[in-house]
Specification:
Blueprint lengths: L4 E12 L6 E12 L3 E5 L6 H9 L6 E5 L14 H9 E4 L11 H11 L4 H14 L15 H13 L5 E5 L7 H18 L2 E6 L2 H4 L4 E6 L2 E3 L8
Parallel strand pairs: 3-7, 3-8, 5-6, 6-7
Antiparallel strand pairs: 1-2, 1-4, 8-9
Helix pairs in contact: 3-4, 3-5, 4-5, 5-6
The structure holds adenosine-5'-triphosphate (ATP).
The site of adenosine-5'-triphosphate (ATP) has 12 residues, from strand 2 and helix 1.
Pfam families: ABC_tran
GO molecular function: ATP binding
Keywords: ATP-binding, Nucleotide-binding
Length: 235
């Protein structure tokens, strides 16, 4: 715990479905991510890691409790187009297991697209995209199409796409899940260096102990319950 609180889950839970078919993906959970944190969320498949990250990102609403982003205007507005949601979208970057690049846009265009969609002019978005690609070591790919780069390179581009917006908090859901160990290790290296450089906090959901070891704090999910490490408690 080294800085101000970026996101707090307060008795936040998420259940899918209802009645006998209901699945409690995340039981009521209390946890906090602070500025500059480096947190690995570990746990077996289906333990609730992705759901917890989606709650922290505001991509899903909790079905119990609340998720709070103290730096947003409307701190608990977990969905919809309000000012809190817009501020949160700018301040939180999410990296998924699949890089999901648009095949008809080149790498620089893919990287700058979220900035353009957020209203940045095309020239500035391109410059920031190139700087972010440089930061993760793939500036030479800027003019290529996604089909012409490797999986590890594509995941670096996905990281650059998030980092170009200079978020306060980066949430990465199995960012190395589709990569071999060596390539995955390089992706973690560039991610850690980049969040250090932009001063962001990082939360990584991972199955891989080698990835988790690179992060200062380790949390474990088991059957939808978050087992916190000794340093993950109070805001
Ligand atoms: N949209 C959904 N509808 C119904 N059930 C869901 C949905 N999303 C997740 N679940 C269920 O919630 C539980 C937690 O899923 P979640 O994806 O969060 O786990 P995970 O730890 O991230 O798993 P993995 O490592 O395989 O990605 C699982 O039982 C899953 O089947």
């Amino acid at each position: 715990m080294t800085g101000s609180v970026l996101v707090s889950c307060r008795d936040a839970g998420r259940t899918y479905g209802s009645g006998p078919a209901a699945v409690v993906a995340v039981h009521d959970t209390n946890c906090h991510v602070h500025a500059h944190d480096r947190i690995a969320v570990m746990g077996s498949s289906g333990s609730g890691k992705s759901t917890l990250l989606h709650l922290m990102a505001g991509l899903e609403r909790p079905t119990s409790g609340e998720v709070v982003w103290p730096w947003c205007a409307d701190t608990t507005d977990a969905a919809g187009p309000g000012p809190g949601a817009r501020a949160r979208a700018k301040g939180i970057g999410v990296i998924f297991q699949s890089p999901s690049l648009i095949p008809t846009l080149d790498i620089a265009e893919n990287t700058g697209l979220p900035l353009v969609l957020a209203g940045e002019n095309a020239g500035r978005a391109h410059a920031r995209a190139l700087a972010a690609l440089e930061r993760v070591g793939v500036a030479d790919l800027a003019a290529k199409l996604p089909d012409d780069i490797s999986g590890g390179q594509a995941q670096r581009v996905a990281a650059a796409r998030v980092l170009a917006a200079r978020p306060r908090l980066v949430l990465a859901d199995e960012p190395t899940g589709r990569l071999d160990r060596t390539t995955g290790g390089h992706v973690v290296d560039v991610l850690l260096a980049a969040v250090d450089e932009i001063g962001a906090a990082l939360v990584v959901a991972t199955h891989d102990p080698a990835v988790a070891e690179r992060l200062r704090t380790r949390w474990t999910m088991r059957d939808g319950r978050l087992l916190l490490g000794p340093d993950a408690g109070a805001p």
